[in-house]
Each structure stands twice: as structure tokens, then as C-alpha cells.
Design goal:
mainly beta, five-stranded antiparallel sheet, 51 strands, about 60% strand
């Protein structure tokens, strides 16, 4: 809040305005009695300043501000204009704020006879009071006090007791007739009066008699009967002569008995609750089909199982989930019958691959069906695995499933040996000669020439490799290879007859020219005869080769004199 606090009767403000000065003179002359200390009757201006001026002022509610013969009471911004001796126009702005009267409220409750003090004033009676206070800003504020008085309470108890009886309340016992007063301090710190009227009933009291269950086991119901009066009121709230109760601990029940012409009496009946034997079990709560379960019970001194056993532990072999009951007893306690359930879980139903035989160096796929998870002895957890054992091996797989017992199956893989083949025979020949290769080590053979005997006779014209697959009695096979080296000069050395062969390479037809041709024989590189042609002393013979496979062939020509010549040609 913008405000100007004036604490003197005359205030002269002088301030620099560029190179000029102005003097503002404030006077309280003309203020009336009771006006705010911030009341000013006039504001006299002198000097030669030619700029606008502003006054910021705050007054109390109901007060006023006077300047240059003008009075302002409401908040707002006002302006005054005048001319100095030099006919220069001046404007004065007044920014006026009003400080409203504050109103605070205090609500207080006092006890009867008490007091409330504030700001040097004491209040004892209920009512609404107002204090006008001058605050630090010199304005007056109202403080409203709402005072309530808590009157002293008066409670009354009227009680009739039998002769020789007593009445107890708030720690005080009364046996004689009369009127008594207790002064008590309540939660509100005020004092209240309790008036007690005691009268004596000199009639003989009702004599009550009881029958019922004086002792029960925990959890049982006790029946209590009372007789001797005409009406009854139990501390349970029941009004009948018989009640049924279920106390968890030893409990005393009270009953007030009344009868016409007699004094009422209060009697009690106690029901003792005997604790039951606290049974605890330990044992196999879950087993697999065919397994044995051990059950141990403790907490009692003697036991009787539903199986007929009387020991604290039993061994059972249930085929299905079974509950076993036992009654435990102990001196001074009630017997307890409790139960223990053994859950029997079936095994996972699985099917695995059959035992198998494989040849050395091969692999086999093993699989298991049934169960939700699997673990093989190889460490794999898939349903199917592929193995390649070097020796006969047994593989185990454990299968699990929720709510069932795991099962372990095995598969035996017998590894049979492969035959060890050996080839003996001619490994080097001169062209035109026949080589014999002999294989051993197996029961059956297939050569690369197509022969199925344990030997072959071949006449290759170039160095050639021959392979053979041998199979033993287990069906396992091996392959071995032998190479026959053919002397590359053997064709020329063996030729007794010169002849011509063209074109080389040949595609469809090959021509042979020689004196008195008798026979022409064609061999492939494996020494196998491909064609044999007879001639009657002709000098030129044409041979069709369009059905020949591409490659190198050996041709042998014999004339009428029995001379033989050999050469090679190519078919493309």
C-alpha cells in the first residue's frame, strides 16, 4: 500500500527537479477534533517548477484529506490545476486510498464462575462485547467477543439396595440410605455435580439357584439355568431363566433376580473353558503314485488315527489323494480331532523313441512326447534332439508337467562299427594289360564298375581310380579306392601297325584308314569295350560316334596279317 505517514504538524518537502526546486507546505490548520491524524487542511505550493506533481495518501475509514480548499473522503485519483505568477500551468495529482475498519471476532466458552481476559478487560457473563482498538496504522479496529458460559451440570442417580447391600460408583461405596453429591471434573475441565439417592429395601432377597455346564471344551456351548425368582436380567442382556453361551475363555455370568415382595439379588455362575489339545503335523503332504508318505503328529499325549494306529507317526501308501484323521488327548485338556491330507500326484505320461542301432559316424533323432517341459542328459531342453554318439550311449530325458510328478525315460543307442576295407592287387600295368583288384573286410560289395564281386579285372588305357563300397552284417558300409597306374608310353610301344584316325576330336563320325583292316575295337578309359567292328580287308572304315559320351577313347586296329595297332581319339 502506498501511503505517506506524517507525524508532525508541519512538513516541508524540498526536492530537486533538474535545475529547479519546489517546496510543498502541508498544514493541519482547520482540521476538526476527532479527525484522523492524517487530516490536512491545506497544501500550499511555491516555487518555479513547471512539471506535474503527485501525492500518495492513505486515510482511515471515515477520515478525510484536504488540500487547496478541496476535501477528499473516498478512494480514487484526483487532479488540481493552477497557474503560477508567470502564467505557467501546473497539475497536482492526488492518489487517495482508504484503510477500512477491521473487525475481528473471538468466540470463547468458560466454565460457570470462570473469566476471560483480553486487552486488559475481564468478562464473566455470557454475551457479545465490542472493543475499539487503535492499531499500528493509527486506524481504529473493532474486536467482537462472543462469550458463552458452560453451566454446571447436575446428574441424578436413584438406586434402591437390599439391606446389607452396597452401591458403588466412581470409586465410592454407599451402604446407607441418603442423598449424596459427587463433584466431578469433566473433559471440558468444568465441574459437574452427580446427586445419588440411596434407599434401602428391607424385604428378604431372592435366593437364586443355578444348574448347568460348569466346564466346557473350547468351542462348545454351555447351558446355564437359574431359578428362585420371578424375573431375571443377565449381564448378556437375556431375560429368560436359561441362557446358552459360547465363551472362548473362562467367564463369569451375572444375573439379577426379582420376585414380588422380595429384594432383588445379583448372583453369578462361572463357566470354565478347558483348552483343547493343540495339534501340529509334520510330514509328506504330497507324494507321487506308489510312493510312501510319513505323517507325524505332536501336541498330545496319546493318539488314535483313523487307520487304527495309536503312535504319533504313521506310514501310508495311498493310491489317491487321502485325508487321515487323528484324535489327540492330553491330561487336563479336551481331546482334539484334526486331519492331514496327502495329495497323490500321477506321473507324467510320456513316450520316447525306441532303442536303436546306428553306424559309426552317423546321427539319429530322439524325441519325447508328453509333459510340458523336458531336460535331456545332454543338457538340451527341446522335445527333439539329434545325437551322433561315437560309442554305444544311453540318453536320459526328464519330463515335467504342472500338478504331476516328473518321470525320467531312457533311450539306448547302439553304435555299430563300419567295415574296414582293404584292396589288394595290381596297381601298375602296361597299357593293354589286365589288372586284378581284390577287396576284403565286408560281406557285400559294389564296385564303381558296377561289379558286385569281391574282385574285378580291368584293362584301363590311362591311370584310373576304382572305388568299392563294402557293407557288413550290421548294414554299415565304408568306401575304399585303389588307383591303377598305366604307363603312358605303352600304346606306342605296343603298336605293330600304323593307321590313321580322323577327325580328332570327332562329333558324329570317325574314319579309320589302314591296309587290309580286319577288326576295329573301341574301349573307354575304364577298359570297357564300347564297340567292335569287322572288316573284309577294307582300307577305310567309318565309325558312328554320335551316341558316344564325350571323352577319351582307345581304338585298336588289327589287319589281315595279324598285326595290331592302338591309338586314342576324343569325342566332343
Amino acid at each position: 500500500m502506498r501511503k505517506l505517514i506524517l507525524l508532525m504538524m508541519l512538513f516541508v518537502a524540498t526536492y530537486a527537479m533538474g535545475a529547479q526546486y519546489k517546496t510543498l507546505n502541508f498544514s493541519t490548520a482547520g482540521c476538526e477534533a476527532g479527525d484522523s491524524p492524517l487530516c490536512f487542511q491545506s497544501l500550499l505550493l511555491s516555487g518555479q517548477n513547471t512539471i506535474d506533481d503527485t501525492i500518495y495518501r492513505t486515510i482511515c475509514a471515515g477520515g478525510r484529506f484536504d488540500t487547496n480548499n478541496s476535501t477528499y473522503r473516498l478512494p480514487g485519483i484526483y487532479s488540481q490545476t493552477w497557474y503560477d505568477t508567470g502564467n505557467q500551468e501546473h497539475t497536482l495529482y492526488i492518489d487517495l486510498a482508504v484503510n477500512d475498519t477491521l473487525r475481528d471476532t473471538i468466540r470463547r466458552t468458560i466454565c460457570a464462575g470462570g473469566r476471560f481476559d483480553t486487552n486488559g478487560v475481564t468478562y464473566r457473563l455470557p454475551g457479545t462485547y465490542t472493543q475499539c482498538l487503535r492499531e499500528a496504522d493509527s486506524c481504529y479496529h473493532n474486536l467482537v467477543i462472543n462469550l458463552a458460559v458452560n453451566d454446571t451440570l447436575r446428574d441424578t442417580i436413584r438406586r434402591t439396595i437390599c439391606a446389607g447391600g452396597r452401591f458403588d460408583t466412581n470409586g465410592v461405596t454407599y451402604r446407607l440410605p441418603g442423598t449424596y453429591t459427587q463433584r466431578m471434573r469433566e473433559a471440558d475441565s468444568c465441574y459437574h455435580n452427580l446427586v445419588i439417592f440411596i434407599t434401602i429395601n428391607h424385604n428378604p432377597p431372592v435366593v437364586a439357584h443355578f444348574s448347568g455346564d460348569t466346564a466346557i471344551c473350547f468351542g462348545q456351548t454351555a447351558n446355564i439355568n437359574v431359578f428362585g425368582g420371578d424375573s431375571y436380567l443377565w449381564n448378556t442382556g437375556d431375560t429368560s431363566s436359561s441362557i446358552a453361551v459360547n465363551p472362548s475363555v473362562t467367564t463369569t455370568y451375572y444375573v439379577t433376580s426379582d420376585s414380588v415382595g422380595k429384594c432383588s439379588s445379583i448372583d453369578s455362575f462361572t463357566v470354565r473353558v478347558i483348552p483343547a489339545v493343540n495339534v501340529s503335523f509334520f510330514g509328506d503332504s504330497s507324494i507321487c503314485v506308489g510312493d510312501t508318505a510319513n505323517i507325524i503328529v505332536s501336541g498330545g499325549e496319546s493318539y488314535l488315527w483313523g487307520t487304527g494306529d495309536t503312535t504319533s507317526s504313521i506310514t501310508v501308501i495311498p493310491s489317491t489323494t487321502t485325508t487321515y484323521f487323528v484324535t489327540a488327548e492330553s491330561v487336563g485338556k479336551c481331546s482334539t480331532t484334526d486331519s492331514f491330507t496327502v495329495v497323490v500326484k500321477p506321473y507324467v505320461n510320456t513316450t520316447v523313441s525306441n532303442n536303436s542301432e546306428i553306424c559309426s559316424g552317423t546321427n539319429i533323432m530322439l524325441s519325447v512326447r508328453g509333459g510340458s517341459s523336458h531336460r535331456w542328459s545332454t543338457g538340451q531342453t527341446t522335445q527333439t534332439i539329434t545325437v551322433a554318439p561315437l560309442l554305444t550311449t544311453v540318453y536320459y530325458v526328464t519330463s515335467d508337467s504342472v500338478g504331476k510328478c516328473s518321470v525320467t525315460d531312457s533311450v539306448k543307442i547302439i553304435v555299430r562299427p563300419n567295415p574296414r576295407l582293404t584292396i589288394t592287387g595290381d596297381t601298375s600295368i602296361i597299357i593293354g594289360e589286365t589288372a586284378t583288384l581284390i577287396v576284403s573286410g565286408a560281406d557285400r560289395y559294389v564296385w564303381s564298375t558296377g561289379a558286385t564281386t569281391n574282385y574285378i579285372n580291368v584293362s584301363p588305357y590311362i591311370t584310373t581310380s576304382y572305388s568299392v563300397v563294402g557293407t557288413n552284417g550290421y548294414g554299415c558300409n565304408s568306401t575304399v579306392e585303389a588307383t591303377i597306374v598305366v604307363n603312358p608310353n605303352s600304346i606306342a610301344d605296343a603298336s605293330e601297325l600304323d593307321f590313321k584316325v580322323y577327325p580328332i576330336p570327332a562329333k558324329e563320325q570317325l574314319t579309320v584308314e589302314c591296309e587290309a583292316i580286319k577288326t576295329i575295337t573301341v574301349y573307354n578309359m575304364l577298359g570297357k569295350e564300347v564297340a567292335k567292328i569287322s572288316a573284309d580287308g577294307e582300307k577305310s572304315v567309318a565309325i558312328s560316334v554320335k551316341d558316344y559320351a564325350q571323352g577319351v577313347y582307345v581304338i585298336s586296329v588289327t589287319n589281315a596279317k595279324g598285326q595290331t595297332g592302338r591309338s586314342t581319339f576324343i569325342v566332343r
